[in-house]
Amino acid sequence: MTHTNIYPCLWFNNNANKVVEFYCSAFPGAAIVEQSELATTFMAGGTKFMALNGGPSFNVNSAVSYYVYCGSESEINRLYRLLSADGNILMPLDKYDWSDKYAWVSDRFGVNWQLDVDRINAEQKIVPSLLFANAKKGLVKEAIRHYTGIFKNSKILLEAPYPPEAKQSDGSLLFAQVKLNGFIMNMMSSPVPHDADFTEGNSFVIECDSQNEIDYYWNRLTEGGQESMCGWLKDKFGISWQVVPAILRKLMSDPQRSQRVIQAFLKMKKFNIEKLLSA
Fold first, then answer.
1. What CATH number has the domain bearing residue 68?
2. Distances from the Cα of 184 to the Cαs of 20, 88, 116, in angstroms?
3. pLDDT at 279
4. Has residue 259 got a pLDDT over 90?
5. Does 122 share its domain with 241?
6. Sign of the alpha-carbon dihedral angle for 95, 99, 100, 104
7. Where residue 3 falls among pLDDT bands split at 50, 70, 90?
8. In terms of domains, do 93 and 150 share one?
9. Same domain, yes or no, for 114 and 30?
10. What do you get for the CA distance between the two ends of the chain, in Å?
């Protein structure tokens, strides 16, 4: 798998284990990577996810969905049945302008999935999709320029402008796909009003190998945004990121020091590796 230090985090009200169990049964080859009371990381469709037991403060919503390139009719039919069961169908499985077979569903846990019969020429078959809606609908082009300017080894894979009849401002993008340090993300504009915006319910983790790397991402992503606690921040578009040291997992798995490490980082906004190591 292509190495990337970025992956999505889904916030749940203390049922993350049940959620991950469902996804590991739904997606072929999906498996748990690490599990604790606080969070479970798992692989599905070539994408690493974290499921967080965060409590009732935030919920996942449709501002961030997960685009699944199914690759066959039998697979999209199977996933459509599984993911829509006890959930909601936002767009039924059908032929659309952009795909011979496509659907948008919200599953029983509130996570949004866009299913496409098409293949993707990458190991990453599940791609997070950010929906820029309402006052943000014209910001897709600015967002892709912003993120590709921050993340190393980045490139714009696709830019699809609004059609002329949509009468949007010149250069406005309806859809774009980027690769940020090896991690593929879709960004979409909603031409119609939308009732959800970006929240901490869907965030993106950046694992950093050094304090310099933490400082770099923290400083760049908080430009026009805001700092929060424990490595969390919101960027200028309202998207939540967690900038964390890669060594944190190892420190947290040590029963001799995990509580001291937790007490140390609960006082931090930006993570300080030296203070964690000395805790």
1. 3.10.180.10
2. 22, 26, 16
3. 78
4. no
5. no
6. negative
7. low
8. yes
9. yes
10. 34
Tens-digit pLDDT profile for residues 117-157: 999 999 999 999 999 999 999 999 999 999 999 998 999 99
Q: What percent of the chain has pLDDT over 90?
A: 81
**pTM of the entire structure?**
0.94
Residue 200 lies in a domain: no
pLDDT at residue 78, rounded to an integer? 98
Q: What is the pLDDT of residues 57-111, one digit of tens each?
A: 999 999 999 999 999 999 999 999 999 999 999 999 999 999 999 999 999 999 9
Residues 6+ apart with CB under 8 A from 78: none
d(CA 167, CA 174): 12
Domain hosting residue 51, numbered range: 6-189
**111 is a domain residue:** yes
Q: Tokens at residue 243, please?
A: 């900038």
Buried b (16+ CB within 10 A) or exposed e, 158-178: ebebbeeeeebeeebbbbbbb
Which residues share a beta bridge with 69? 116
Tokens representing residue 267 in the block: 């006082």
Please give the Cα distance from 69 to 117 (Å, whole number).
6
Q: Are strands 112-116 and 64-69 parallel, antiparallel or unpaired?
A: parallel
Number of domains in the chain: 2
Same domain, 96 and 220: no
Q: Are 8 and 46 in contact (CB under 8 A)?
A: no
Q: Is residue 197 assigned to a domain?
A: no
Are residues 185 and 65 part of one domain? Answer: yes
Residues 78 and 128 in one domain: yes
Q: Which residue has the tokens 């960027």?
A: 235
pLDDT at position 123 = 93
DSSP lists the bridge partners of residue 129 as: 65, 186
Same domain, 99 and 235: no
110 and 216 housed in the same domain: no
